[in-house]
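In this section we walk through a basic example: taking a raw amino acid sequence and producing a predicted 3D structure, encoded as discrete structure tokens. The instruction is simple. Fold the sequence below.
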Amino acid sequence: MRAKKVFFLGVFAVLAFTVCSCFGESRLEKFVEKLNEECPTSMGEAGEMTGVELKDGNAVVKMTVNEEIFSIEALKANPELLHSAHVLNFSNPTDEMKEFIDELRRCGAGLTYVYVGNVSGNEVSATLTSREIKELSRSNVNSDPDQQLDAQIAIANAQLPVQIDETTVMSKLERDDDCIVYYYDVDDTQFSLDALEESRDLLTTSFIDNLRQQKEQIATKDFIRACILADVDIAYCYRGTTTGREIRFYVPIDSI
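The resulting token sequence is shown next.
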């Protein structure tokens, strides 16, 4: 069974880091100019950063995203999730991000991210105001792993359900005690759940290999890191839409 990726919070953290990693000057105007010289900047499967400008007192970062794995419409319908995602990432900054936040604070600037669908051209944006930037620059409190993981799950669920293939729909992502569960609804009139069960060992190995790859990928690596820090395992639950039968595959977090 293939597991189609859904964008988690990690992509927003990576975008913030991309801005910071290009930042080498003390003034806002100069690092915006520096960023634009290096655009477009590839973000792998996520898309690319296409430009940065100063507008209405904000640094505006424009990103073209892959709509096969990033739902613009879902995030437009949940603006508070998108905003919270950015706040959460800036609440737990790297050293480079701290420097970036301090520079924005000194300049009295806010920060806006604009995400543009690579096919539809639809846009969604999120802004951290200059006041929020100032508050974040004063805060030394890092977000805890459980809070980070809850935010990741909320972002993922905002983009579900999603069709995986002709017989499978990913319906939700849920935390169940010490386990994160991916739920897939399978048309069991066309696909044999017995075949899944018979291939349990092979599929479990495949899931482990896939998760190890996700640890290095832009869209998902912060989600995997959050699972590791929160010490939660990962499970895949396939449910027959006709019979209601469930088959689960468990991946211990220490195996990835």
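Looking at the output, two observations stand out. The first strand starts at residue 41 and ends at 42. DSSP finds ten helices and ten strands in the chain. In the next section we compare this with other chains.
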